[in-house]
Amino acid sequence: MKEIRLGTIGSGVIVRSILDNVKLTEGIRLEAVYSRTEEKGRALASDYGVGKVYTSLEDLFADEDVNFIYVASPNSLHCPHTRQALLAGKNVICEKPFAPTKAEAEELVDLAKEKGLILVDATPTFFLPNLRILKEQLPKVGRIKLVMGNYSQYSSRYDALKKGEVPNVFSPDYAGGCLMDINYYNVYLNLALFGKPESAEYVPNIYNGLVDTSGVITLKYADFVSTQAGAKDTWGVNYFQIEGEDGYIYIRDGSNGIAEIRVVTRESEEVFNEQDNPDRWYYEVSRMTGMIRSGDTAGIKAGLDLMTDVVDTIETARKKAGILFTDEK
User: Fold this and answer.
1) Using CA atoms, how far apart are residues 197 and 106, in angstroms rounded to an integer?
2) DSSP readout, 79-144?
3) Can you give the pLDDT at residue 328?
4) Are 36 and 55 in contact (CB under 8 A)?
C-alpha cells in the first residue's frame, strides 16, 4: 500500500495524540475528519491542516480519497462505526476497547475477511518495543507464581459524575467503566504475556448503580495467579510486577506504557528500555503504519486474535460482577 489516508471519527484527546504522530510518520496522513458538530470538526481539521470536515458518516465513507477510517468514538460506538465503515468498503483502525463482547469482535473480524479489507486493533501496548523485551526476559525469573499490577488515574470526569452528570466514560449507555478503560491495559498485558487465563473474577466499586469507577480483577492461570487493580476515582503508584521462583520483573509506570523493565534475580539486576520516545502513541502509529504498508497480515491477525481473547476475558468478568451495559439489560 502506497499511503494510508485517514478519515477520523472522534475528536478527543486520543485522536489528537494519534494525529500528532501521524504528522511525524511517513506513509500516513490525515485526509478528513468527522464530528457530530461542525464546530468541533472544524477545530480539529484546522489544528491538523486539512480542509475536509464531515458531519455525516455516509459522506465520510463515500469520500474516495479516504482509504482508512480511524475509529475513536465512545466505546459503545466502536463496533457499529467499524461495521458501517467495513460495509462501505473502507479499511479500519479501531481504538480499544474494540468491542464490548466477544461475539461482536468476531463478527467484525469475519466481516473484514469477507470483504477483503484490513482491520487493525489499535491497543498501543501491542506496538511497544519493550513488550518484545519483556517476553524475552520472562524465563530469567523462573516459574512464575504471582503477577500484580496497578493502573490508577484520577479522572476529571469523575468530578462531573459526583456533581450528578453522567459522562460517557461512566455511562452504561456507552459501554463505560474502569474495566473497559483503565484496567483493560492490565488485562491486555497479562494475555499478551501469558495467554488466556482459566478464569477471571472482577470485584468492582460501582457508582450509584451505573458502572465501575475502580476495581480489582483476578486472573487465574494453571499454576499462578494475577491480581490487577485499576481506578478512575483514585490515583497512586502505577506499576506491573511479575514474581517467579528465581526473581522478579518490575515495570515502571505500569502496563499501558511499559516505560522501563527491571529484571532482578539472585545473581544480577538489569534494566532494559528500547523506547527512546516516551510517547506510546508514536510507536503505535509508526509500527502500525509499517505493518499495513508492508502487508504484514500475520502481525495484524496476531493483534486481532489477542484482542478477541482480551474482550472475551473482560466480558466474562464484568458480567459475572453484574456490570451490564444498556443494551444487555
Assistant:
1) 19
2) HHHHHHHHHTT-EEEEPSS--SSHHHHHHHHHHHHHHT--EEE--GGGG-HHHHHHHHHGGGG-SE
3) 86
4) yes
